[in-house]
Specification:
Two copies of one chain form a homodimer. Helix content of chain A is 62%, strand content 8%. Chain A has helices at residues 4-7, 10-20, 26-36, 45-57, 80-91, 103-109, 116-138, 141-149, 154-178; strands at residues 61-65, 74-78, 98-102. In chain A, α2 (10-20) crosses α5, α3 packs across α4 and α6 (103-109) runs antiparallel to α7 (116-138). The model of chain A is unreliable at 1-5 (pLDDT under 50). Chains A and B meet through α2, α5, β3, α6 and α7 of A and α2, α5, β3, α6 and α7 of B. The first copy, chain A, binds a DNA duplex through residues 9, 11, 25-28, 42-50, 68-74.
Chain lengths: 185, 185
DNA sequence: GGTAACATGTAAGCGGTTACATGATTAG
DNA sequence: CTAATCATGTAACCGCTTACATGTTACC
C-alpha cells in the first residue's frame, strides 16, 4: 500500500504516461503535453527532467545516453514496472481533484458592480473566448482521430470533453445575452 | 495606467468584490466564496486578512474595529475608490486566463494503458463526479434566484455556466460509455 | 460544561513558474 | 552565416496552502 505506485506527484505520472505513449526525450514530452493535454493540465520544462530522473531511479523508465558532441542527450522507454505503476495510478479512482480557475467567470460573477455596457462587453469576451477554444480544439481532431485509428480512443474522448464544455459555456453566454433587457431590473 | 486599480493580485479583487456584495468580516468573505464562486475560484483564509489590510491601506475599503472581549474583530465597507477600482478591474477585458487542472481528464487521457474494465470504471467515476457537481450546483439555485430578484443576475449566470459545464462533461462520458464495444479495437 | 460556529492571525513549506545558461543541428 | 528548432539543466522566487495558535459566543 505504501509502495511507490500511488505516492508520486501527479506530474511524474504525466511524464510516465507520455513516455508510455511514445515520447522519448524530455523535450518531446513537453511538446506532447502542449499538443494533447494542455487544456486540462500543464507542466513546465523545469519539472520534466527531475521527474525523469526520479522515474529512472525508481526503475519505471529506462534511460539511454545519446550524447551529441559535448551535449548530453537521453532517450527513455517505459519498463514493465513503469507500466504497472501507471496502471495502478489509473486504477486508483478514489479522489479525483478538479480545479478550475477562471478570471472570466470571476469577473462575470461581480459584473453587477459595473455599467451595463461594460458587463455586456465582458459577457461577449467570455463567450468569444470559449468559442475560440472550441475552434482551436476542433482543429486537433485529425491528430486524435489518428490515434483512434490505432486503437486508442481516449485522446479523442478528452478532446470532445473540452469541446463540449466550452461550447456549453459559450451557449450559456449567448442565451444570457439574448435575454431581453437582461441588464436592467 | 500604473495606478493601483489594475495592478493588484486577483484574490484582492475577490475580497473587494465580496465586500461590495455585502460581506463584512474576513470570516464572512471566506464563507461567501465557498458558497458562490468555489467552483471556479478558491481563496484560503490566510490570504484574506492580508488582502483586507492591503485594501484598507489603499483606501478601497474602510475598516471598523468591533472588538469583543480581548478578541479583535473588524467589519468592512467598500469606499467610493473601492467601487471605482472594482469597476476598472471589471472593465479590463484584455487577457482572461482560464486554467483547468483535472486529474480525472488526465487519467482518462492515459486510460488506454490500463484494462478495459479499469478504464470503464474510471470513465464512470468521472461521469458521476460531474453529475454530482450538477446536483450540488443546482441546489444553490434558490440562493442565486434571491439575488436575481434583487436585480443582480450575474450569480445566476455563473451558476448556470457551472451546471452546463458539468452537464456537458457528464453527457460526453455517458455517450462514450454507450458506444458499442468502445474498449475494443 | 462541552461542542460547534464565529473570528483573526502567523509561520513554514511546497509546488510550480520564470528566467537564465548552454550547446547542437537543420534549414534558409 | 544566421535563425529556428532541438535539447538539457539550474537557481531564484512566489503564490498559495496547511497547520498551528488563540479567543469568543451561542446553543444544547
Amino acid at each position: 500500500m505504501t509502495d511507490t505506485s500511488v505516492g508520486l506527484p501527479v506530474h511524474t505520472y504525466v511524464v510516465l504516461g507520455m513516455v508510455s505513449l511514445g515520447a522519448r526525450s524530455g523535450y518531446e514530452i513537453k511538446q506532447d503535453v502542449e499538443r494533447s493535454i494542455r487544456f486540462f493540465w500543464t507542466i513546465s520544462q523545469a519539472q520534466i527532467y527531475p521527474s525523469l530522473e526520479r522515474l529512472e531511479r525508481d526503475g519505471l523508465v529506462r534511460g539511454q545516453e545519446r550524447p551529441s558532441g559535448r551535449r548530453r542527450r537521453r532517450t527513455f522507454e517505459i519498463t514493465a514496472a513503469g507500466q504497472a505503476a501507471l496502471r495502478a495510478w489509473l486504477a486508483d479512482v478514489a479522489p479525483i481533484p478538479f480545479e478550475l480557475r477562471d478570471v472570466g467567470l470571476l469577473k462575470l460573477f461581480f459584473a453587477n458592480a459595473t455599467s451595463p455596457g461594460d458587463a455586456a462587453e465582458l459577457l461577449e469576451a467570455v463567450r468569444r473566448r470559449s468559442q475560440e477554444r472550441v475552434a482551436t480544439l476542433a482543429a486537433i481532431r485529425p491528430a486524435a482521430s489518428e490515434l483512434e485509428a490505432q486503437g486508442n480512443l481516449y485522446p479523442s474522448l478528452t478532446l470532445e470533453m473540452g469541446i463540449a464544455f466550452h461550447q456549453a459555456m459559450a451557449d450559456v453566454c449567448a442565451d444570457f445575452a439574448a435575454r431581453p433587457r437582461h441588464h436592467q431590473r
